[in-house]
Fold this protein.
Amino acid sequence: MKTFEEISLIISSELDQINWSKEPRGLYEPIGYVLSMGGKRIRPALTLMACNLFQDDVQPAVNTALGLELFHNFTLLHDDIMDRADVRRSKPTVHKKWNDNTAILSGDVMQIASYQLIAKTPAAYLKYVLDLFSQTAAEICEGQQYDVDFETRDVVKAEEYLEMIRLKTAVLLGCALKCGARIAGAGEEDAQNLYDFGINIGLAFQLKDDLLDVYGDEASFGKKIGGDILCNKKTYLLIHALEQATTESKKELNNWLNISDEKFSDEKITSVTKIYNQLGVRTICEDKMLEFYTMAVANLEKVSVSDIKKQELRNLASKLMSRND
Amino acid sequence: MKTFEEISLIISSELDQINWSKEPRGLYEPIGYVLSMGGKRIRPALTLMACNLFQDDVQPAVNTALGLELFHNFTLLHDDIMDRADVRRSKPTVHKKWNDNTAILSGDVMQIASYQLIAKTPAAYLKYVLDLFSQTAAEICEGQQYDVDFETRDVVKAEEYLEMIRLKTAVLLGCALKCGARIAGAGEEDAQNLYDFGINIGLAFQLKDDLLDVYGDEASFGKKIGGDILCNKKTYLLIHALEQATTESKKELNNWLNISDEKFSDEKITSVTKIYNQLGVRTICEDKMLEFYTMAVANLEKVSVSDIKKQELRNLASKLMSRND
């Protein structure tokens, strides 16, 4: 069995071999730039790790894995335009470093490039992987659309939020695992259990993100604490706070939601966090996260390979839960 | 053999059957809107007509044909954002009717939807069609990038312009024909001759567009005459005018290129057109267009099916050349 670190090395070495120094430069250079920013490469790692559960040789799944990573980075590129996010991983985003048009067009060709890698999936699994990938890609767009829609909605229910993050984040993890398993010849039941494992890890992962935004350590989190609070993002915490709040705390919370003046930023973060603490929404969010994590572990248990082989995936899942960045 | 009109009916009826009234509405509604704007549906028609050269039943090529049409409309959607074009086919464009973010995201999912249709290509040809489609899609993005790059370049050579329009416009026509032929079991040589036919028709088609912008009839052309002149678009006409111009006419032309004040619009169009006429660039462009058209006809001749079967494609090519819209 390969460790996560060994898998990660394979991925970064294969990613580095793709040549983006081609013409027209204005189109391809931003792709190289985006990929050079790094990232955890979780998705392609999941593909190769799922593959590795069923066979030693992970090479047949490499191109598919890279395709998923490219697609993920494409979504970040276009999302950053839509969110007017100027910085990612401490570097200027593509639309900031170049311009919106470049970010749109380079993103488009990046999506095509991800399909070109997916098309290199071993012939026997091409149609299966292609269909799952397209379905997943469309779901991710749907998730992004719901995310945008929720910004202007007065009320978003917790289950609607969970469905949004399932689409926007979790399905690609599930897809990554399922593709890797199938390419290694796994049956549909095992592949589906790994898919479900990915979904539950993805949901837990996003709830962890919501928690880190409020309760994380700024230095290790890598972005400013309280960003979600400042932009009134309807996270699992805020949704539950609005649901649980008494008349008085609801009034106070709504007051803060109406304040966007930057000079009150620190006070807004402190006060909203205090309301969250009073209402116990941190615990609610942590409990929900653990619930998904527990389900994920149960999904992994069901996969019909020896327990020892699952250790790396189990470790990765556990690491994603205890992360502070 | 099916006529172009019969083929067009099949395409519009099949296109109408795709359901875009699904959730989230904000994501899918713009796709239905873009497709409802109509258009000549040349690309899917070419796929089915090429298929029809080799077999009666065009049904096996329908999904591929629709995928190409969807992709074409996706490129229009994203190009309109980049060009800040507010109107297409007399209707507001998506980014105008909704907003930029909607146009970006709906375009993204439209590209995925086009791949979902391409994935329905009969299994025996899926990998071939998928690879050709992705290569073509990437080339179209490259063409768009060159088009953008040329805007800020001082000098663009005629051959660079032709390469740009080959990528931006012609390759999709070639791809459409080649896919249709291969799906009907045609050999690579016939398929390649049809591809080349498409390339040459595409190049001629774009030169016709350049000519119509200056010499067309406003009512039938559907957009304002002289649009390319007003925005200093480096068309085949302008490129040749700048190359052919004497010191004096070059000075006059450059003067007009520096004038962007709307109150001189009519005068700019009249004056630049007069310079074109003096320099004979209309004839140069018409000659080049005819050269490509003649090559296209020769490509079609080489396809190893009976002459009578080629009549519909020959008619279509001729119609595209004599069109005034």
